[in-house]
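Hi all, long-time lurker, first post. I run a small reading group and we've been trying to get comfortable going from sequence to structure in the token notation. Rather than ask abstract questions, I figured I'd post a concrete chain and ask someone more experienced to write out its structure so we can walk through it together at our next meeting. Sequence below, copied exactly:
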Amino acid sequence: MWVCTEVEALGHKRGADRVKYAGDHFGGNLSHMPRHLVQSPAPLRRAILAAALAGALAGLAGCTPSGLAERPAVGSFAYRIGPGDRLRIATYGEDRLTGEFTVTAQGAIAFPLLGEVAAEGRTVSEFTALLQRRLGSEYMRNPQVSVEMVNFRPVYILGEVTRPGEFPYRERLSVYALVAKAGGFTYRANQGYALIRSENEPGERAVRLTSATAVQPGDTIRIPERTF
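-- Answer (accepted) --
Happy to help. Here is the structure in token form:
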């Protein structure tokens, strides 16, 4: 469902009139066409009708979808580890348990002594607590472990921005900040909402944009075109 402004609604009515006008012509009915157009050469009539159809389609594409989804603000979004992330893990006094580890496609890391440890879907603090608990229960007394992110999964922005493409993710990244990295909105951009496909989701969702709308790792964000 779409919600249009009064100006957009007027454009839709005019667009619908143009579609009917063009449809009558192509159906062979010239009764709705002004006399000076009926008497115009056929190529000119076709050009006029093509312009009418283009205007109609543009008008029908300019509405803003209703029921826009809301995203967490950057201050409230908790980053969760996923495949492709790279972590630095330090275990105090244990060099063999210290190093950098990449999360596999299965969502785990291969950690010395423990083997495969599931990381996907956990926050950094949750994953730190898991390592400490497993090391403490199986191999060590009171292990001291720290975990920090080295590399995040990238994000992608498409559509009405100056330089669409892939960009590195950083914590507390907003959609507006990502747009700035991409050179800003184009003059055609609809800045009221974005079409976002989250990682592991099959399709896009229309999301309302505010200055604090959070980007999540792996997002593909498309900025739509507005109607003039």
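A couple of things your group might point at:
Residues 109 and 201 are 23 Å apart (CA to CA).
The chain is about 30% helix and 20% strand.
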